[in-house]
Amino acid sequence: MIPLDPLAALVVAGGTLLAPVAVGLLIGVDRKANAAVQLRVGPPVLQPLYDVTKLLAKASAGSDRVAAGLLAAHLVLAAGSFALILAGGDLLVAVLVLGAANLSFILAASAVESPFAQLGAGRELVVLVATEPLLILVVVAYALAAGSFSSAAIAAGSPYMVAVPTLALPLAVLLSATLRKSPFDLASSHHGHQELVKGSTTEMAGGWLAIAELGHWYEAAVILALIVLAAARLPVVAAALVAALYAIVIVADNTLPRATWRAALAIAWAVGGGGAAIALVTAVLASTKGAMG
Amino acid sequence: MGGLGAILLLVAAPPAVAALMRLPSIGSRRLPRDLLACAAVASTVIGLAALLGGCPVLGRAERFEVSLGPLDPAAAPAGAAWSLAPAAIALVFLAIALRTRTLALVGLAGAHLFVEVGAASAQLAAAPEAAGRGGLVVDPLAATLLGVSVLVGGVIIVYALAYPPVHLAQRGIDPARAGSSVAWLLVFVAAMNLLVLADDLRLLIVGWELTTLCSVMLIAFDGDAAALGAGRRALAYGLAGGVALGAAEWLAGPNARLSGLLVDGGGTAPVAVPLVLGGAILAAAMKSALVPFQGWLLGAMVAAAPVSALLHASAMVNAGSYLLMRLSPAIADQEPLGPLVVLLGAVSFAAAALAALRQHDLKRILALSTVSTLGLTTAAAGIGSSAALSAGLLLLVFHAVAKALAFLSVGTLEQATGTRELEDLAGALRTAPLLAAPLAIAAATLALPPFGLTVAKWAIIEAGARNVAFVVLLALGGAAYLALWTGVVGRLLVRRRSGSVARGAAEPGVVASADEASPGAPTPGRRLPRRQLAAVAVLAVASLGGLVLAAPLAAWLTDPAARTVVGSGAGPGLAAGWSVALGTGGFEVPLVAGLLLAASVAAVLAAARVRGEAPAAYLSGAGIAARPGTLHRAPGGRTALARSGGFYWGGGTLAWGSDSDAAGVPNGSVGRPAALVGWVLVASLVTAAVLAAVLLGTAGPGAPG
Amino acid sequence: MSADRPFRRWVRRSRVRSPWLVHFDCGGCNGCDIEVLDMLTPRYSAERLGVVNVGDPRQADVLVVTGPANPRNAEVLRAVYDQMLEPKVVVAAGSCAAHGGIFRGASNVLGGVGEVVPVDVFVPGCPPPPWRILAGIIDAVPLLADVRPPRSPSGGPSRPEPLRVAPDDRPAKGQVDPAIDAHDADLESVTVP
Q1: What residues does B133 pair with on adjacent strands?
Q2: Do C59 and A198 touch (CB under 8 A)?
């Protein structure tokens, strides 16, 4: 029963507050890189932060009460999931909390009248079914490699060079899905111009849209944290891992079309699930060997 | 011994009251009937309290043998009676089978009778056991199951007292029969109590067969074609399970006990032990409706809501899980059986949850989610470690409360609106919040952390983490389970300015369902009996209590239960791993509960900040559904979009076509055998892969030295 | 006051740098709409200004209108405008949106979209080329920095008397109405940044 000491609590709180800024900047770089791929200049790196600030500063928008409440819950739960990882808590619990955050966002999307929003919510469900198993598999693979489910212990036991090569596949799928990039952008695309009707966010406006966006940034932060955990003690390697996976995701985004729901499930389970399963078997074998040796 | 009185209150009083209620002079009058039923429920509660007072098992891993006195099977005349009782029940089954005039059923009933008679003759031929040992055992495991059966079952029966007349009126059945349905429910609870207390196999089998009998009678109660068909199916599965269990008893030899089977097989020949356990596993799989055998439970949804609730939540299906948990150490010891049970449970969990995604009948969704959850408890029993067993038991308790709540609230919704189609109830949380909120609460407690179910899921994943196939199946099933409840609540939450909930009252051109056409259907908005609402409210509060109850329940009930079953050598319990300490792993239950509360507070604050509802955005498509002639209305006036449901699972393409054929049979039933074969293949492939990996792994380090 | 100045500056900067468009066609010949879409292609790289084309007026800051206002769509145009959250600007792209253009004077045409909503920038041309529409948006964007008080419909560029074309002095076939030509010439000199 060792509660967090004040300094650690301060670090966790500060990290959780700063996470959206970091993710926003990362997405800014991402937009810049995408523009470069398409031979455009692209928006400034600060663009995602501009967008969210502008939305927050909009005149107050009317909204559906239930949807607004669920969006707020989504933000809190996603931030809480990230804070749990940062505080060294159980990774599986953090992932389950992230599932609850997803649930509140999908409910917020399906609570409104627009059929487009409901269609988007239905597709969010498909993405949830496609990615949630990968999250759990990734966590279990880490735990088998480290011998503990605590993210602190997993970070301390890093780097996991044996398990990482195939674990990169599910992590890339998760990153792609959480950033709403092709082929997993069937519910709602991150590209501004790609669609006129924004699926799940159709009826969100002004500050509520900003809150939804911030919640998604926290979700992305959780996935990024999962990537970093592979080499948490070697910051350079961790940064390189994030960059490499991000590069894969950008290439996939610019080369693959939006998947149908069947294709999304098939790709996620075949590519991500296959990679995760191999990583799991590797981790089991490695730990039995370790126990015997 | 004080236990005897308590046991009589638990086991004998309800059937006695039930018999009283069948008397014509009482059965026709409402008030004494209700009073009697309430008295019976009260007697079971008092019995439970007395039993726990006499045998203090809460929080302690202790085990008390209770003798039935002169009625104990160890006593000579009573022993013969108990030995013959299963055969007598088998005769009743045969009579029912003969009445159905179904050859397969008669054959099954014949086989059942043969097995039971064989077992009984073996029992009678053997010398009676030395007296002095009780045939019943009270330990934390039995106490937990007993608590579920008595408390949840009691609430369901109180609800049922007000339910059947309306239900029967809807179906056009004589309301005078209502009494007998409640009587069967009482017998059901008593049989379940006997089952979980039994240590002697004969007592266990009597309880087992009686629950089968009650379930068949209750499922077929309505007497229409659908009910009779479902009853026949339930009878078939019940008989098959009975044959398996009877054969196990026969093999186990005379005077066999559950506790004996755990210690070197008791008096049973070592060769027969795997067969005995296999029979028990098969019977449990039939009873718990695990995946290849889920047919009867899906059919059983034709029965009234309280019956479904009792089958799914507090009695019937728990019996299978209970038996597996009780035998868990023996099963985990037998090499092929343990992994097989784990796999059976995991496949059930994943397959049922995925199958539930394509359903839109609320009761069907609930039934499949029951199968799914029981798969998880089964897997926990197969793993056999103390933590896993404790988690499985915790899962069972929380599932019982949440699922009872879900079924009763669906029953209430169905009474008030005449439908349980998810699409017809879309938006019910907006238009009828009081009726639909309990269902949403049940869904929340089934899906959200840190309610008991999620905690248990977490613990089971962590306990079985080294079994790759198991983890993969669990991850798939867990995702589907989460998506399922999100989808259901999402539909209930839809804002509909145009069109009203249920019956399509405001939507011209909607085809009336068969239910609406029946005479005596209540009008929407009709006031519901207060007792029903009270029962639902009690269960809702209990479900929400799960937010804080997981840790104390684990410490007081399920951990000691797991310790009594597997002994303290099988690793630490569940609660041992819990603390608020971060950095060590473990489910930070208080922390996550605080997070959930913070999210709720944020939600309320945010909702309070909303100033007025915005008009639906231009081009957002809102408000065009109610007008005829738009995209959303197929030719003939049927709502094409609405019928296709929020789920994009199966049923061809994403197109807005209907996903049920003209007869209303969901397409899901067409591909089931194929899907099953596919699942089995996938499962065996995965297992083969894992076994190969493990073999390689064990061979690896030894080879080069 | 001084403490919140950087914050205010950040907010104003954000508003100016994140103009999301909603594009509404009042029913011209669709020539301008093609040019608007052209403007959004990578060739003109509108995203470097933060421009994003959204379908939902409630999420948009800039309303780009093409085509003349007419009684059938005036209500819808007004609804789209009203649903946008402040701060917001309106850019009328093309001659029709400015004053009815070639449809001016038709019995079912009210005139430019300024008759229905307050227009901030008129972009001339029939159709205006993409870079000119983008220039119009660049002109309008500074107006997003602050929340402005509600505005009433602005009318056309020079708000001429409604053109009453008597049956007998309708321009001969193939001849452009001199009044319309004059307006376009005016706009060319006035609004180009």
Answers
A1: none
A2: yes
- Residues A277 and A269: their CA atoms lie apart, in Å, by 10
Judge residue A112's burial from the number of C-beta atoms within 10 Å of its C-beta, 0-12 exposed, 13-18 middle, 19 or more buried. Answer: buried
| Residue-level pLDDT at B667 | 35
- The position carrying tokens 């309303």 is C63
Residue C34 structural domain: 12-148+171-191
> Given a contact as 3+ CB pairs under 8 Å, which chains touch C?
A, B
Quickly tell me which residue has 């708000």 as its tokens: C159
Model-level pTM? Answer: 0.85
Contact status, residue B49 vs residue B79, Cβ threshold 8 Å: no
B266-B271-B273 Cα angle (round to 5): 45
Is the predicted pLDDT of residue C193 greater than 60, yes or no? no
**Which range has the worst mean pLDDT, A19-28, A211-220, B13-22?**
B13-22
The list of chain B residues with pLDDT below 70 reads: 1-2, 27-28, 30, 127-132, 164-167, 169-170, 175-176, 264-268, 496-528, 568-587, 613-705
Element of type H or E holding B21: helix B13-22
Question: Is the residue at B605 inside a domain?
Answer: no
Closest CA to B700 of A165, A162, A293: A293
Output the pLDDT for position B646: 37
Q: Is the confidence at residue C190, as pLDDT, over 60?
A: no
**What is the Cα–Cα distance from A190 to A182, expressed in whole angstroms?**
9
A75 belongs to a structural domain = yes
pLDDT value, residue B132: 58
Tell me which chain A residues have a C-beta less than 8 angstroms from the C-beta of B428: none
d(CA B476, CA A237): 31
**pLDDT over 60 at C187, yes or no:** no
Where in the sequence is the domain holding A244, given as residue range(s)? 6-292
On the question of pLDDT at A93 being above 60, the answer is yes
Q: Is there a domain that residue A1 lies in?
A: no
Chain B nearest C-alpha distance from A48 (Å): 23
Task: Tell me the pairing of strands C20-25 and B136-138.
Answer: unpaired
Are B47 and B158 in the same domain?
Answer: yes
Please judge whether A40 and C85 are an interchain contact, meaning their C-beta atoms are less than 8 angstroms apart.
no
- B571 and B676 part of one domain: no
| Count of A-B CB contacts under 8 Å | 272
Q: Which two tokens stand for residue B263?
A: 């210690």
Task: Count structural domains, chain C.
Answer: 1
Determine whether B580 is exposed, middle or buried from the number of CB atoms within 10 Å of its CB (0-12, 13-18, 19+). Answer: middle
DSSP string, B520-534: TPPPTTPPPPHHHHH
DSSP secondary structure code for residue B511 in this structure: P
In tens, the pLDDT along A167-179 reads 889 999 999 999 9
Residues 6+ apart with CB under 8 A from C13: A50
Structural domain total, chain B: 2
CATH code, domain with C187: 3.40.50.12280
Distance CA(B396)–CA(B33), nearest Å, equals: 32
- Domain, as residue range, for B700: 671-705
**Predicted confidence (pLDDT) at residue A183 exceeds the cutoff of 70:** yes
Model pLDDT, residue A245: 93
Measured between beta carbons, the chain A residues lying within 8 angstroms of C47 are 31, 35, 40, 42-43, 192-193
Rounded Cα gap, residues B485 and C193, in angstroms:
56
Residue C98 covered by a domain: yes
Query: How many structural domains comprise chain A?
Result: 1
Chain B residues lying within 8 Å of A97, measured CB to CB: 449, 592, 595
The pLDDT score that the predictor gives to residue A260 is 84
Whose CA is closest to A209, among C90, C56, B622, B497? Answer: C56
Burial class (CB in 10 A: 0-12, 13-18, 19+), B594: middle
Any domain includes A22:
yes
| 8 Å CB contact of C57 and B618 | yes
SS3 assignment, position B98: helix
The answer to whether the CB atoms of B610 and A134 lie below 8 A apart is no
Q: With an 8 Å Cβ cutoff, are B465 and A61 in contact?
A: no
